[in-house]
Design a protein that fits this description.
By secondary structure, the chain is an alpha/beta fold. It folds into 2 domains: about 170 residues, Rossmann fold (3-Layer(aba) Sandwich); about 80 residues, Putative phosphatase, domain 2 (DNA polymerase, domain 1), CATH 1.10.150. It is about 40% helix and about 10% strand. It has a 7-stranded mixed beta sheet with strand order 3-2-1-4-5-6-7, sandwiched between helices. α4 runs parallel beside α6. It starts with 5 loop residues before the first strand and ends with a helix. The structure holds xylulose-1,5-bisphosphate and magnesium ion. Magnesium ion binds next to loops.
């Protein structure tokens, strides 16, 4: 059996559905605390997700929604401060309002860790957001399961740029064909394919209509015993047995043959 040497995971939308009920309300709280009238409803936020990165997303929104009295030379500092506030709010949310991991994620990460398969994270979100998600769902010790955690703190060039995946592969010292990437969005798959990675997509409400051309596999989720996943497409879809309930290391290895 050919095993992947390493699995590389996106965070937002892939490990957990963080966008609609996590990042979005944190942005809105930061806007309200700063006294600005912006409010991102669920639909508006879905459109804004085309822009990766919270700072970039706010800067983009500002083009059509200028802030009264803000001078051009003040914009950079304003966005940075707003983003620091938003990150603090997001991190604090985990103390009360737990965001759960998506189906199959905890099971698969634990299996991979036990089997000594190398794990990495490649995300455009902020490092603090990754730490709080992992520690609140899997415990503080889970951070050490990941040999590389590449975030916006290390790589400023956001997805769809492949920069964060190129950096992750470099740190792992592996070639793309030795790894599998897990993504949930159009920007994510473009980034992963840009680094030549075979990519498994788990769609979510915000991304189910995205163009996932080039995906190795598209599924609704990774599945659990008794809660089977559905295969939606991808060039390796016919390698998945019709009765497969969930993906484990063996199932992922079959895809690499
Ligand atoms: C994640 C993002 C992030 C989050 C917000 O994209 O685009 O910007 O929405 O996080 P991906 P920050 O899942 O493709 O990595 O506010 O920390 O940027
Ligand atoms: Mg994502």
């Amino acid at each position: 059996m050919v095993f992947p040497e390493a699995l590389i995971f996106d965070v937002d939308g892939t490990l957990a559905d963080t966008e609609r009920d996590g990042h979005r309300p944190a942005f809105n709280q930061a806007f309200s605390d700063a006294g600005i009238s912006w409010h991102w409803d669920v639909e508006t936020y879905g459109k804004l997700l085309r822009i990766s990165g919270g700072k970039e997303r706010m800067r983009h929104y500002m083009l059509d929604n200028p802030v009264d009295g803000l001078q051009a030379h003040e914009i950079d500092g304003f966005i940075v401060n707003l983003h620091v506030a938003k990150t603090r709010i997001y991190v604090d949310m985990f103390a009360n309002n737990q965001i759960l991991l998506r189906p199959g994620i905890e099971r698969l990460l634990k299996e991979l860790n036990q089997q000594d398969i190398r794990l990495a994270i490649a995300t455009t979100t902020t490092r603090d957001n990754v730490d709080v998600l992992l520690s609140s769902t899997l415990g503080d010790e889970s951070l050490a399961w990941f040999e590389v955690i590449a975030t916006a703190n290390e790589i400023s060039d956001k997805k769809p740029s492949s920069a964060v995946y190129d950096y992750t592969l470099e740190l792992l010292g592996l070639k793309a064909n030795q790894c599998l990437a897990f993504e949930d969005s159009r920007n994510g798959i473009v980034a992963a394919l840009g680094a030549d990675l075979n990519t498994i997509i788990t769609v979510n409400d915000y991304t189910q209509e995205d163009d996932f051309s080039g995906a190795m596999l598209i599924v609704d989720q990774l599945g659990e015993p008794g809660k089977p996943c559905s295969v939606l497409g991808g060039w390796a879809a016919e390698k998945v047995p019709a009765d497969l309930e969930y993906f484990d290391l063996k199932g992922l290895s079959e895809l690499m043959k």
